[in-house]
Automatic annotation (TrEMBL), chain A:
Gene3D superfamilies: Hotdog Thioesterase. One of its GO terms (molecular function) is fatty acid synthase activity. InterPro entries: Fatty_acid_synthase, HotDog_dom_sf, MaoC-like_dom. SUPFAM superfamilies: Thioesterase/thiol ester dehydrase-isomerase. PANTHER family: (3R)-HYDROXYACYL-ACP DEHYDRATASE SUBUNIT HADB, 3-HYDROXYACYL-THIOESTER DEHYDRATASE HTDX-RELATED. Residues 7-108 form the MaoC-like domain. Pfam families: MaoC_dehydratas. Belongs to the enoyl-CoA hydratase/isomerase family. GO terms for biological process: fatty acid biosynthetic process. One of its GO terms (cellular component) is fatty acid synthase complex. This is Dehydratase.
Automatic annotation (TrEMBL), chain B:
InterPro entries: FAS1-like_DH_region, HadA-like, HotDog_dom_sf. This is UPF0336 protein ADL15_25140. Residues 7-137 form the FAS1-like dehydratase domain. HAMAP family: UPF0336 (MF_00799). It comes from Actinoplanes awajinensis subsp. mycoplanecinus. Belongs to the UPF0336 family. It comes from the Bacteria.
Amino acid sequence: MADVSEPQTFRVTRADLVRYAGASGDFNPIHWSDRVATGVGLPGVIAHGMFTMALVGRAVTAWAGAPDAVKEFSVRFARPVPVPDTDEGTEVVVTATVKEVTEDGDTKLALTATCHGDKVLSLAQALVRKR
Amino acid sequence: MPLDQTFVGRTWPPTETYLVGREKIREFARAIGATDAEYHDPEAARALGYPDVVAPPTFPVAITMSASRQVIGDPALGLDYSRVVHGDQRFAYTRPVVAGDALVCVNSVDEITTRGGHWFITTRTEVRTEAGEPVVTVWSKLVQRGEENA
């Protein structure tokens, strides 16, 4: 098992946010309306924080090898992820690094997610069961 | 607007049962680009030891977000949802959610704090089966931004 995962890049477009809104039931208009988003002081439509966390979750389950190996998973949303209304959208880059192996043999992963070089999460970590 | 601090430590009655559908898990997995077979194919999931297709780790919010309206939607709390942003999110899993689960949510408020004109509320949702088997505990910290930062 590698101590540091290769950074994974996820492209995020408006279409992804619409699909995530429907799948998750989070229809907050800041995730699909520039008018509403700018009206509350945001630069424009932003990704659901939970969509970003889900992308990080993909990296965690890939590292863990199975979804039932994840014991704990937590993040702090530090910065919004603006998603422009373009074909390219934006990119979120995710890394996972082994921070420590606990006495029980579980692995604590330190996680990062960046957008244009800015950290959009802080205190992001997961605890993965010993296999 | 200040939040009602008497909400701290309160626990609400269990919510109505949420029946986890196979297609909902597939839809959620597709939406986050999770293509592994155990999220989509019941046979593949069973081969890995799950009773049916398994949900990705953040799927429980699709259940708890609506369940927690019981707390954060209570006008007595005083939360102005138009100024709310998501602060922190945490999951502690007993096991993953799988299709066919009949789940209930028990909401509590762990903490309400204020700093710099902002208000912070942490809800805890215990997600259990109807039979009382624990599945996952979900903590969400919401931030009500102060007027000057709105």
